[in-house]
Amino acid sequence: MSVFESKIIIKRPVDNVYLFLADMNNHRQLMPDNIKDWNSTQDEASFTIENITTLKLKIEQRIVDDLIRIIPAEKPPFDMELKWDLIEINGGTEATFTITADLNMMMKMLASKPLQKLADEETQRLATLLT
Fold first, then answer.
1. Mapping DSSP to helix (H, G, I), strand (E, B) and coil, where does residue 30 land?
2. Hey, what's the torsion of the CAs at 95, 32, 61, 25, to 10 degrees?
3. Is the CB of residue 84 less than 8 Å from the CB of residue 67?
4. Which fold has domain 2-129?
5. Residue 95: which of 28, 3, 6 has the closest Cα?
6. What is the C-alpha to C-alpha distance for residues 76 and 68, in angstroms, rounded to an integer?
7. How many C-beta atoms surround the C-beta of residue 53 within 10 A?
8. What whole-number distance in Å separates Cα of residue 48 and Cα of residue 74?
9. Are 78 and 103 in contact (CB under 8 A)?
10. Phi/psi class of residue 65: alpha, beta or left (left: φ > 0; alpha: ψ in -120 to 50)?
11. H or E stretch at 114
């Protein structure tokens, strides 16, 4: 399994960050510009990564003020999990976004940089939106 992680401190209470991330409708604001055809509900989102693939994701687990775990709702090109871990720190929140993907050697060479960039962009956008 390949793991891509990004961590950020947000100067907002953990419950604010959790409520934002617990609704898949809000995740569109975290996505990069190459995401098209976004459709979502509170629990699921489907979208196209321009010139790559279409994905449908769903929130598998919510632990209030602690964790949001997102998995594919339909068979993806490779097995993966997206996870937000939240920790309260001095009235703010440490948010860690982790993408775990089962990539073969060829996919790892092609997808590692884009997946790490996605993890970094999502945490940066979250910090910008909630500051």
1. helix
2. 110
3. yes
4. Alpha-D-Glucose-1,6-Bisphosphate; Chain A, domain 4 (3.30.530)
5. 6
6. 19
7. 11
8. 13
9. yes
10. left
11. helix 105-129
Run of H or E including 119: helix 105-129
Q: Is the pTM for the entire model greater than 0.70? A: yes
* Residue (of 35, 58, 59) closest to 48 by Cα position: 35
Tokens of 36: 């098209």
| Spatial separation of the C-alpha atoms in residues 18 and 68, rounded to whole Å | 8
Nearest C-alpha neighbor of 85 from the set 14, 30, 11:
14
Tokens at 111, concatenated = 């997808």
Residues 6+ apart with CB under 8 A from 70: 24, 57, 58, 59, 60, 81, 82, 83, 84
Walk along the chain (131 residues) and give the pLDDT tens digit of each residue.
Answer: 999 999 999 999 999 999 999 999 999 999 988 889 999 999 999 998 877 778 999 999 999 999 999 999 998 878 999 999 999 999 999 999 999 999 999 888 888 898 999 999 999 999 999 98
Q: Residue 27: name the closest of 51, 58, 5 by CA.
A: 58
> How is the chain split into domains, by residue range?
2-129
